[in-house]
Specification:
Layout lengths: L6 E4 L2 E4 L5 H20 L6 E7 L1 H7 L13 H25 L4 E7 L3 H6 L16 H12 L5 E6 L6 H6 L4 E5 L8 H9 L3 E5 L4
Parallel strand pairs: 3-4, 4-5, 5-6, 6-7
Antiparallel strand pairs: 1-2
Helix pairs in contact: 2-3, 3-5
């Protein structure tokens, strides 16, 4: 989904690249095929349709920088570029889904399992011997908001990790927060109550799957 930011596959995962290669071409081809199938299967559909995308902070915490084994979240400039690119790509993808299934009531979920680690300075460096610095809450909020603001539909930020940053998600402008009930720690009920009082929806993982 990234616009003007190519990437490539390495043995450790995805890495930012200097120019588009076969990995990007293959990924785009697969996405296009998936959208064709979506349109065929849901022809005439008029109900709720949920799609999921990787959120900006989990993306930055998992993609390697070129010429180094550090992840992108170590470089504020790279994070800014990734977030802007994802915001543009996510908006275009959502528009494409709505064009293929025009009657759908779209729910768009940003998956952010790494958000707590980024917020608490728990993302390991390339060597694994230390941790990257924590990112300020307002920066985390603004990054999420930048992606969410361009998305048409009901937006959800999902975090299945412990210590869900409810406040950051609430302030990002998301329509709802999604979390795993089994990960909720003692004392976090107030944060859940604040989400409810703010008028946000809650998608709660409560049934084992």
């Amino acid at each position: 989904l990234l616009i003007d930011i190519p990437a490539e596959v390495t043995p450790r995962g995805w890495r930012l690249a200097e120019r588009p290669g076969r990995d990007v071409a293959r990924a785009r081809s697969m996405l296009s095929s998936d959208l064709d199938v979506l349109a065929e299967v849901l022809d005439g559909f008029g109900g709720l349709l949920k799609i999921q995308l990787c959120g900006p902070w989990t993306l930055a915490a998992s993609m390697e920088l070129p010429h180094t084994m550090n992840v992108a979240v170590a470089d504020p400039g790279a994070v800014a570029d990734l977030t802007a690119s994802l915001a543009e790509g996510a908006a275009a993808h959502v528009a494409e889904v709505l064009k293929r299934v025009p009657g759908a009531q779209l729910v768009v979920q940003l998956d952010e399992p790494s958000l707590p680690a980024v917020a608490e300075g728990e993302v390991p460096t390339a060597s694994g011997l230390s941790r990257l610095a924590a990112v300020e809450p307002h920066t985390l909020r603004d990054g999420l908001a930048q992606v969410l603001v361009g998305i048409r539909g009901y937006t959800v930020v999902h975090c299945c990790a412990a210590t869900v940053p409810f406040g950051i998600i609430r302030e990002s402008g998301a329509s709802a927060v999604s979390f795993d009930l089994s990960q909720l720690r003692r004392g976090e009920e107030d944060a859940v109550a604040e989400v409810a009082e703010a008028g946000m929806g809650q998608l709660i993982g409560a049934v084992p799957t």
